[in-house]
């Protein structure tokens, strides 16, 4: 339930957003991203140890040689007052420091390059993934455009298909028509052949019957007469033929 | 200040306040913890690469159950490496020269591997006491020898590290004392001794790294047998 009107009219309490030590906490939303970028290079150092800011700090008062004079003076002070005693550790220190400085000078650049290469590979991998994804999407866009273009030719495709089918149907129809014609012709030829055959048979039968009857009707008397006539004819002919030879 | 040879091995104290804990924990300050950046600076990149290398190297021979030991073995390796290398600087105290510290590291870790083996696979662990293919008459003697070798492992681990580092540091002290003493008498011999010291320093750097690696490697080997 909302606070009663009397309380709402009061100004908000001081403790809102303010710790009692007057340090405001959580007054805005959390900033998760983007984080501010890291500086590209580390702080400038001179001689690998002393920050450049120290030299800049002393420059206005003591010039360029100031810090070096300070260092030399301090060193000589420590040595002469035996605040720093030269003992065997000094020699050991010289050795280990020379080893360290030699190592850093010789391998420093290559180690830095190696570290940079590791980071470089990480970034390159991520970039490669991103580029591959972009390329895949671009290919998909190309494919989609091609599909859309294919869509435009869809009507021609269907027309061609339709024509194809119509031609097939027509061919089929013509074939069947031809078949019907052939079948009907075969039937009619059959009938015609039947009639011709019957006629032929009747004719043959009639000729045969006529011949048979004629042969039967030739009596022996007739036969003699015809043979005698033939001989007389032949004799007559031979008389006339002798001349032709 | 005038130092004797053994002042570098005394536990550091400042106005009666023992600083041993500080000197043991200090190297951890030199290893930056990676922040939640994706591309880190050079130091963090190299450090991550080195830790990945160490962990992969130590954990590949182990089976999956042994990977539970990854954190402790890798952090032990880095700890010993840093302490050993920092101890080569002048006027520093190296905690690993103290036998108490090395035994405190070696004994519980070795005992942990032993008990893990005896608890989970007792016959296999005890079976390691007899190498394969020994002739039968030798078996009793060999078991005794292997048991002794097993029980001496923590001692060996601790003493190896202590002795190597202590001997190295002492040698550096002695030879540098010789160099300093000879400087006024025969500078040439002193220069020669300095050369020897230089080579010894390089050796000590190598020994520091190798000893740390050997300690952790042996522990991982003992773990391999038992897990």
TrEMBL record, chain A:
Q: Which UniProt keywords apply?
A: CF(0), Coiled coil, Hydrogen ion transport, Ion transport, Membrane, Mitochondrion, Mitochondrion inner membrane, Transport
Where found, per UniProt? Mitochondrion; Mitochondrion inner membrane
Q: Identify the Pfam families for this entry.
A: Mt_ATP-synt_B
Q: Which InterPro entries match?
A: ATP_synth_Bsub_B/MI25, ATP_synth_F0_suB
Q: What does this protein do?
A: Subunit b, of the mitochondrial membrane ATP synthase complex (F(1)F(0) ATP synthase or Complex V) that produces ATP from ADP in the presence of a proton gradient across the membrane which is generated by electron transport complexes of the respiratory chain. ATP synthase complex consist of a soluble F(1) head domain - the catalytic core - and a membrane F(1) domain - the membrane proton channel. These two domains are linked by a central stalk rotating inside the F(1) region and a stationary peripheral stalk.
The family database entries (PANTHER family) matched by this protein are listed as: ATP SYNTHASE F(0) COMPLEX SUBUNIT B1, MITOCHONDRIAL, MITOCHONDRIAL ATP SYNTHASE B CHAIN
**Which protein, by its recorded name, is this?**
ATP synthase subunit b
Species:
Eurystomus gularis
> Corresponding gene?
Atp5f1
Automatic annotation (TrEMBL), chain B:
Could you list this entry's UniProt keywords, alphabetically sorted.
ATP synthesis, CF(0), Hydrogen ion transport, Ion transport, Membrane, Mitochondrion, Mitochondrion inner membrane, Transmembrane, Transmembrane helix, Transport
What is the membrane topology here?
Multi-pass membrane protein
Q: Say yes or no: keyword Transport present.
A: yes
Cellular localization per UniProt: Mitochondrion inner membrane
Record has Transmembrane as a keyword: yes
Q: What GO cellular component term, any one, is given?
A: proton-transporting ATP synthase complex
Q: Report the catalytic activity.
A: H(+)(in) = H(+)(out)
Where in the sequence is the signal peptide annotated?
none
The record's InterPro entries line, in alphabetical order, gives:
ATP_synth_F0_asu (IPR000568), ATP_synth_F0_asu_AS (IPR023011), ATP_synth_F0_asu_bact/mt (IPR045083), F0_ATP_A_sf (IPR035908)
**Gene Ontology MF annotations:** proton-transporting ATP synthase activity, rotational mechanism
Q: Which domain of life is it from?
A: Eukaryota
Q: Which Pfam families match?
A: ATP-synt_A
TM helices/strands, residue ranges? 12-31, 69-89, 101-118, 138-158, 170-189, 195-223
Family per UniProt?
A: Belongs to the ATPase A chain family.
What is its quaternary makeup?
Component of the ATP synthase complex composed at least of ATP5F1A/subunit alpha, ATP5F1B/subunit beta, ATP5MC1/subunit c (homooctomer), MT-ATP6/subunit a, MT-ATP8/subunit 8, ATP5ME/subunit e, ATP5MF/subunit f, ATP5MG/subunit g, ATP5MK/subunit k, ATP5MJ/subunit j, ATP5F1C/subunit gamma, ATP5F1D/subunit delta, ATP5F1E/subunit epsilon, ATP5PF/subunit F6, ATP5PB/subunit b, ATP5PD/subunit d, ATP5PO/subunit OSCP.
> Entry's PANTHER family?
ATP SYNTHASE SUBUNIT A
Q: What is this protein called?
A: ATP synthase subunit a
Native organism taxonomy: Eukaryota, Metazoa, Chordata, Craniata, Vertebrata
């Amino acid at each position: 339930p909302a606070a009663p009107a009397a309380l709402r009219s009061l100004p908000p309490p001081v403790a809102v957003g303010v710790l009692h030590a007057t340090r405001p906490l959580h007054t805005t939303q959390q900033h998760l991203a983007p984080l501010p970028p890291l500086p590209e290079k580390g702080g400038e150092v001179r001689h690998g140890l002393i920050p450049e800011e120290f030299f800049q700090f002393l420059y206005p008062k003591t010039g360029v040689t100031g810090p070096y004079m300070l260092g030399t003076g301090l060193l000589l002070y420590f040595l002469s007052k035996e605040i720093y005693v030269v003992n065997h550790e000094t020699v050991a220190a010289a050795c280990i420091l020379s080893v360290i400085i030699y190592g850093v000078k010789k391998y420093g650049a290559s180690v830095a390059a190696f570290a940079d290469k590791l980071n470089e590979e990480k970034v390159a991998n991520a970039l490669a993934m991103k580029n591959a994804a972009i390329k895949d999407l671009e290919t998909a866009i190309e494919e989609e455009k091609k599909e859309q273009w294919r869509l435009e030719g869809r009507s021609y495709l269907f027309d061609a298909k339709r024509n194809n089918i119509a031609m097939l149907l027509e061919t089929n129809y013509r074939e069947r028509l031809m078949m019907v014609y052939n079948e009907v012709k075969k039937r009619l030829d059959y009938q015609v052949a039947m009639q011709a055959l019957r006629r032929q048979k009747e004719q043959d039968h009639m000729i045969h019957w006529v011949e048979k009857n004629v042969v039967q009707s030739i009596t022996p008397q007739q036969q003699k007469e015809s043979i005698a006539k033939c001989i007389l004819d032949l004799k007559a002919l031979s008389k006339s033929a002798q001349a032709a030879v | 200040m005038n130092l004797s040879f053994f002042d570098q091995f005394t536990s550091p104290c400042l106005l009666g306040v023992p600083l041993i804990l500080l000197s043991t924990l200090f190297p951890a300050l030199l290893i930056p913890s990676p922040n939640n950046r994706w591309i880190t600076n050079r130091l963090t990149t190299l450090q991550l690469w080195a830790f990945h290398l160490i962990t992969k190297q130590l954990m590949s021979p182990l089976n999956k159950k042994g990977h539970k030991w990854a954190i402790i073995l890798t952090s032990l390796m880095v700890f010993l490496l840093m302490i050993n290398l920092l101890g080569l600087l002048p006027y520093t105290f190296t905690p690993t020269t103290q036998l108490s510290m090395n035994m405190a590291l070696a004994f519980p870790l070795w005992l942990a591997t032993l008990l893990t083996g005896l608890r989970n696979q007792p016959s296999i662990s005890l079976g390691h006491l007899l190498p394969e293919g020994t002739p039968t008459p030798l078996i009793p003697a060999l078991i005794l020898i292997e048991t002794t070798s097993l029980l001496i492992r923590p001692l060996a681990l601790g003493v190896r590290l202590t002795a190597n580092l202590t001997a190295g540091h002492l040698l550096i002290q002695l030879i540098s004392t010789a160099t300093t003493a000879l400087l006024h008498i025969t500078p040439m011999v002193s220069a020669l001794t300095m050369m020897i010291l230089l080579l010894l320093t390089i050796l000590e750097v190598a020994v520091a790294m190798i000893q740390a690696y050997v300690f952790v490697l042996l522990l991982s080997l003992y773990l391999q047998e038992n897990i």
